[in-house]
Write a structure and sequence with these properties.
The chain has 204 residues and is an alpha/beta fold. It has six helices and five strands. Helix 4 crosses helix 6 and helix 5 crosses helix 6. The two termini are 25 Å apart.
Amino acid sequence: MARSSVRDLWKARLEGRLPAGPADSVVLPRHGRAETPRSTAVRAAFEGCVLGVDPSLRGTGLAVLEFARGRAPVLLHSRTVTVPRSAAMPACLAAIHRAVSEVLATHRVRHVALEQTIYVQNFQTAQILGAARGAAIAAAAVHGEDVFEYPPLRVKQAVVGFGRASKEQVARTVMGILGHGRTLAPDEADAAGVALTHAFTWRA
């Protein structure tokens, strides 16, 4: 199957346009390529709201997407948690925790999906990114939400169709799937991509 058709397949499934027959038994497994499952049963599409989070100490992206059978995903809310460089780490973590809590209090979210920290050689950078993720996860846990994490490679595979896609390609594809009029900020597009990945690859 061509790489570009992976996204089209999932878009059709979410919109309820996937025709009956052999294509109806195609699923997207965790490695991001389409294959035929062992069972002939059709996997139900994800339904409900997902809060996608792209963690960063001073620019965490948040995006709430709603998934429903028979239509394309809808972006309900997006924002970037921007914190001044003059702010100390505790203040940044508090801002992330507060923003995630506000979103969860406003929207009926079924799951929270985060992008995992990529491998970094700088130990201090890894600590900072881990702390930002922890603040978001803690907020979700306080609200009793289920949290799922996805590495960047898997997000690119699920959304674009191949793991070497650039951030710009991911952003364009995300906005194309959502049919969104305005250009999303980079961190918000990444967060929306994580939410899409969760819905595209969710197995109940």
